[in-house]
Design goal:
By secondary structure, the chain is an alpha/beta fold. It is 44% helix and 15% strand. The model is unreliable at 52-58 (pLDDT under 50). The radius of gyration is 26 Å and the shape is elongated. Helix 1 (5-12) packs across helix 2 (16-23) and helix 10 packs across helix 11 (253-265). The strands form 3 sheets. It has a 6-stranded parallel β-sheet, with helices on both faces.
Length: 344
């Protein structure tokens, strides 16, 4: 049974009003001795404030909504940890929602978070959100005057602050690394083509070939969905198109794990026969049987920056829109090698 202000009032002998003023840290003329007694009894009774009632009075809940597209992906798990840690520093709680890459679940959770009176929302967009759906989300957010920060998967159709990686530069660094190792027949496994991140990463891939004066082979570009299974299927397709490829650039680490599975099942060794480069540098990438060369983003810090932007927006909703672009770096491990060392 929940302990109420009335219970504390009965126990201490003070009025409910006095107890409420003390426990809500209101400016009062109540003596220090009285405050000490009330707080001591509240602690002894394990009193927990009614956050819903407090939010109605203060017009704030000290809670932020967090909508992620796939919590099973270690990228979003690490991002969530960064968001939760920074939110705690500001005295905010987090309400986590996993959309499983579904637009319907995204809208459902948005409605739930609004009903819970959250102060703002940090979200990553689901893969099946198209332009029409984006417009509906934007209208919903505008109607509820709800501060939002988009992380990593963002879109210009939604007016919000954002934190994203420099996708074009990251993919460029990965591709240039392969070219510098002598690779020319390079397969490319992308994410869904309608996502902004995918578009920029493909631009980076093309730019690296163009700058090197090499031919870009469009037929070796295969679309995946950023999940492990599509990595396995995508690698199979690329090998069927050209069995002589010597490297694959994969647009995220999760799909790279699927690529590894495909190659292993075919008896193709990494990197001695095919080099592989991923993107994200999630936790398990350095622990694979062949540690993955990949593009690293400071995921934890990105989460913290998203919270900072959201808190600032909550305090002052008239700030100009801001987009924090995080620079990536290449992390070279054991999954890539010079083409001259390849074994046929």
């Amino acid at each position: 049974m929940n302990v109420t202000l009335k219970d504390i009032a009965v126990k201490t002998g003070f009025s409910i009003t006095t107890v409420s003023l003390v426990l809500n840290n209101k400016t009062t003329r109540v003596s220090s001795k009285t405050k000490h007694i009330i707080k001591k009894v509240a602690q002894e009774l394990n009193y927990i404030p009614n956050q819903t009632a407090i939010s109605l009075v203060k017009k704030e809940s000290k809670t932020l909504g967090l909508i992620v597209s796939d919590i099973s992906n270690p990228f979003f798990s690490e991002l969530s940890k960064g968001i939760s840690a920074k939110a705690a520093e500001y005295g905010f709680n987090i309400m986590l929602c996993d959309t499983e890459d579904s637009y319907e679940l995204t809208m459902r959770y948005l409605r739930i978070l609004v009903s819970k009176n959250v102060d703002g929302i940090i979200m990553t967009l689901s893969q099946d959100i198209n332009d029409k759906n984006l417009s509906l989300i934007e209208t919903f957010l505008e109607n509820h005057i709800l501060p939002v920060v988009l992380v990593e998967r963002s879109d210009p159709l939604i007016m919000s602050d954002c934190v994203i990686g420099n996708h074009k530069m990251g993919s460029y660094l990965a591709t240039r690394h392969l070219i510098e190792l002598g690779h020319r027949n390079v397969g490319c496994l992308t994410g869904p083509s309608h996502l902004e991140a995918t578009k920029y990463r493909l631009e980076g891939f093309k730019t690296a070939f163009k700058e090197s004066g090499l031919k870009f082979r469009k037929e070796l570009v295969v679309e995946g969905n950023y999940h492990i299974e599509s990595g396995r299927i995508g690698a199979e397709k690329i090998l069927n198109i050209d069995p002589s490829i010597t490297a694959i650039h994969v647009f995220n680490d999760m799909m790279a794990y699927g690529v590894f599975e495909c190659l292993k099942n075919k008896g193709i060794t990494v990197p001695n026969q095919i080099s592989v480069v991923g993107f994200d540098d999630i936790f398990f990438s350095k622990m694979l049987y062949v540690p993955l060369t990949t593009i690293a983003l400071p995921i934890h810090q990105m989460g913290g920056k998203a919270v900072q932007l959201l808190i600032e927006r909550i305090i002052n909703n008239k700030l100009p829109w801001r987009c924090n672009i995080v620079e990536p770096k290449l992390v070279v491990r054991k999954s890539t090698c010079d083409i001259r060392t390849l074994k046929t």
